[in-house]
Request: fold
Amino acid sequence: MTDTSQATQNPSTHNQGKVLFTTQATAHGGRAGYIETPDHHLGVKLSVPQEIGGGGGVGTNPEQLFAAGYAACFQSAIGSVARREKVSFGSSRVTGVVGLVRDDLGFALDVELQIVLPGLSREQAQHMVEEAHKVCPYSRALRGNVNVRLTVIEEPEHGDVG
Reply:
Protein backbone atom coordinates (compact mmCIF):
# COMPACT_ATOMS: atom_id res chain seq x y z
CA MET A 1 0.00 0.00 0.00
CA THR A 2 1.33 3.42 -0.98
CA ASP A 3 1.49 6.08 1.73
CA THR A 4 -0.15 9.25 0.43
CA SER A 5 -0.43 10.98 3.78
CA GLN A 6 2.37 13.45 3.04
CA ALA A 7 0.68 14.64 -0.16
CA THR A 8 -2.63 14.93 1.66
CA GLN A 9 -1.15 16.83 4.58
CA ASN A 10 0.87 19.31 2.55
CA PRO A 11 -0.66 19.92 -0.89
CA SER A 12 0.85 23.42 -1.18
CA THR A 13 4.31 22.37 -2.39
CA HIS A 14 5.51 20.21 -5.26
CA ASN A 15 9.07 19.65 -6.44
CA GLN A 16 10.30 22.70 -4.50
CA GLY A 17 7.57 24.91 -6.00
CA LYS A 18 4.35 26.31 -4.63
CA VAL A 19 1.06 24.97 -5.96
CA LEU A 20 -0.67 27.91 -7.66
CA PHE A 21 -3.99 26.30 -8.48
CA THR A 22 -5.83 23.11 -7.62
CA THR A 23 -9.01 21.79 -9.17
CA GLN A 24 -10.96 18.59 -9.07
CA ALA A 25 -13.49 16.59 -11.01
CA THR A 26 -15.43 13.52 -9.93
CA ALA A 27 -16.32 10.62 -12.19
CA HIS A 28 -19.45 8.59 -11.58
CA GLY A 29 -20.00 5.32 -13.43
CA GLY A 30 -16.66 5.05 -15.23
CA ARG A 31 -16.56 5.37 -19.02
CA ALA A 32 -20.35 5.11 -19.31
CA GLY A 33 -21.17 7.58 -16.54
CA TYR A 34 -20.64 11.28 -16.12
CA ILE A 35 -18.07 13.74 -14.81
CA GLU A 36 -18.76 16.83 -12.75
CA THR A 37 -16.85 19.55 -10.95
CA PRO A 38 -17.90 20.99 -7.60
CA ASP A 39 -18.31 24.47 -9.11
CA HIS A 40 -20.57 23.04 -11.87
CA HIS A 41 -18.46 24.62 -14.63
CA LEU A 42 -18.03 21.16 -16.10
CA GLY A 43 -20.64 18.46 -16.19
CA VAL A 44 -20.40 15.98 -19.04
CA LYS A 45 -21.95 12.67 -19.94
CA LEU A 46 -19.54 9.93 -20.91
CA SER A 47 -20.10 7.28 -23.57
CA VAL A 48 -17.96 4.26 -24.41
CA PRO A 49 -16.81 4.47 -28.06
CA GLN A 50 -17.97 1.67 -30.34
CA GLU A 51 -14.33 1.04 -31.28
CA ILE A 52 -13.68 -0.33 -27.80
CA GLY A 53 -16.89 -2.28 -27.45
CA GLY A 54 -19.29 0.38 -26.25
CA GLY A 55 -22.51 1.64 -27.65
CA GLY A 56 -21.18 5.00 -28.73
CA GLY A 57 -23.62 7.69 -27.82
CA VAL A 58 -23.74 11.42 -27.34
CA GLY A 59 -21.25 11.60 -24.49
CA THR A 60 -17.56 12.34 -24.64
CA ASN A 61 -14.80 10.05 -23.40
CA PRO A 62 -11.68 10.42 -21.24
CA GLU A 63 -9.40 10.51 -24.29
CA GLN A 64 -11.28 13.48 -25.77
CA LEU A 65 -11.11 15.31 -22.46
CA PHE A 66 -7.37 14.62 -22.21
CA ALA A 67 -6.81 15.75 -25.83
CA ALA A 68 -8.68 19.00 -25.15
CA GLY A 69 -6.86 19.75 -21.90
CA TYR A 70 -3.42 18.97 -23.32
CA ALA A 71 -4.03 21.03 -26.48
CA ALA A 72 -5.16 24.06 -24.47
CA CYS A 73 -2.29 23.82 -22.01
CA PHE A 74 0.29 23.33 -24.78
CA GLN A 75 -1.03 26.33 -26.71
CA SER A 76 -0.65 28.43 -23.56
CA ALA A 77 2.91 27.14 -23.15
CA ILE A 78 3.68 28.24 -26.73
CA GLY A 79 2.31 31.69 -25.86
CA SER A 80 4.52 31.84 -22.79
CA VAL A 81 7.60 30.92 -24.82
CA ALA A 82 6.66 33.47 -27.50
CA ARG A 83 6.40 36.26 -24.91
CA ARG A 84 9.71 35.22 -23.33
CA GLU A 85 11.47 35.17 -26.71
CA LYS A 86 9.58 38.19 -28.10
CA VAL A 87 8.27 36.21 -31.08
CA SER A 88 4.95 36.96 -32.73
CA PHE A 89 2.92 34.89 -35.16
CA GLY A 90 -0.60 34.61 -36.49
CA SER A 91 -3.53 32.85 -34.85
CA SER A 92 -2.06 29.57 -33.62
CA ARG A 93 -3.87 26.27 -33.31
CA VAL A 94 -3.05 23.09 -31.37
CA THR A 95 -4.98 19.89 -31.96
CA GLY A 96 -4.56 17.04 -29.52
CA VAL A 97 -4.93 13.53 -30.91
CA VAL A 98 -5.17 10.85 -28.23
CA GLY A 99 -5.54 7.16 -28.90
CA LEU A 100 -6.15 4.28 -26.55
CA VAL A 101 -3.71 1.43 -27.14
CA ARG A 102 -3.81 -2.09 -25.79
CA ASP A 103 -0.37 -3.23 -24.61
CA ASP A 104 1.15 -5.99 -22.47
CA LEU A 105 0.11 -4.28 -19.23
CA GLY A 106 -3.41 -3.34 -20.28
CA PHE A 107 -3.97 0.02 -21.89
CA ALA A 108 -1.77 3.00 -22.71
CA LEU A 109 -2.12 6.32 -24.46
CA ASP A 110 -0.87 7.30 -27.90
CA VAL A 111 -0.52 11.08 -28.14
CA GLU A 112 0.16 13.52 -30.95
CA LEU A 113 -0.03 17.30 -30.88
CA GLN A 114 -0.55 18.97 -34.25
CA ILE A 115 0.60 22.57 -34.08
CA VAL A 116 -0.01 25.42 -36.53
CA LEU A 117 2.02 28.63 -35.99
CA PRO A 118 1.27 30.88 -39.00
CA GLY A 119 3.91 33.40 -39.98
CA LEU A 120 6.87 31.40 -38.69
CA SER A 121 9.32 29.36 -40.71
CA ARG A 122 9.30 25.62 -40.07
CA GLU A 123 12.55 26.02 -38.10
CA GLN A 124 11.15 28.84 -35.95
CA ALA A 125 7.93 26.92 -35.33
CA GLN A 126 9.82 23.76 -34.43
CA HIS A 127 11.95 25.70 -31.95
CA MET A 128 8.85 27.23 -30.32
CA VAL A 129 7.21 23.80 -30.07
CA GLU A 130 10.31 22.18 -28.56
CA GLU A 131 10.62 24.96 -25.98
CA ALA A 132 6.90 24.72 -25.13
CA HIS A 133 7.27 20.96 -24.69
CA LYS A 134 9.92 21.62 -22.03
CA VAL A 135 7.64 23.84 -19.93
CA CYS A 136 4.07 22.59 -20.53
CA PRO A 137 2.81 20.83 -17.36
CA TYR A 138 1.10 18.08 -19.38
CA SER A 139 4.29 17.43 -21.35
CA ARG A 140 6.33 17.33 -18.16
CA ALA A 141 3.87 14.89 -16.55
CA LEU A 142 3.96 12.56 -19.56
CA ARG A 143 7.73 12.68 -20.14
CA GLY A 144 9.20 9.21 -19.70
CA ASN A 145 5.75 7.60 -19.62
CA VAL A 146 4.06 8.44 -22.92
CA ASN A 147 5.70 9.14 -26.26
CA VAL A 148 4.27 12.45 -27.48
CA ARG A 149 4.67 13.23 -31.17
CA LEU A 150 4.92 16.95 -31.91
CA THR A 151 3.87 17.68 -35.48
CA VAL A 152 4.36 21.19 -36.87
CA ILE A 153 1.89 21.83 -39.67
CA GLU A 154 2.73 24.55 -42.14
CA GLU A 155 -0.28 26.57 -43.12
CA PRO A 156 -0.37 29.90 -44.94
CA GLU A 157 -1.46 32.91 -42.92
CA HIS A 158 -5.07 33.94 -43.35
CA GLY A 159 -5.36 35.67 -46.68
CA ASP A 160 -2.20 34.11 -48.11
CA VAL A 161 -2.48 32.02 -51.24
CA GLY A 162 -0.43 28.96 -51.30
Q: What stands out?
A: The beta strands are 13-14, 17-18, 26-28, 34-36, 43-45, 93-103, 106-116, 148-152. The chain has a mean pLDDT of 90.
